[in-house]
């Protein structure tokens, strides 16, 4: 499999994993006039998956031993999995005229962390 094909497969797998791990539940009980504002995170999740795929490809390209590269990539990926799990539960009971705005700052923080990892890897292999 070529590097481009490998990247496309990895990106697809990461998008599927990221979107399946994101869970948002809102319970509204005995309430009226509730407004929920939620942001669409698909673009941010796509960018996160792209950065993860780039990290994996840089590791694959810079470590000659494919078994060692797979081991390093798997270790970094498993350490990033805890960053990907997003679960929000909002419970509104006996309320009136409430507005809830749900945003995902955690995706931006995760992306910033992953970019730091990528830059560290690139600096270590003397690309930067």
UniProtKB/TrEMBL annotation:
InterPro entries: Spore_coat_X/V (IPR011428)
Spore coat protein X/V domain ranges (all copies): 22-63, 88-127
GO CC annotations, alphabetized: spore wall
Any one of the GO BP annotations: sporulation resulting in formation of a cellular spore
Pfam families: Coat_X
Coiled coil spans: none
Protein's name according to its UniProt entry: Spore coat protein X/V domain-containing protein
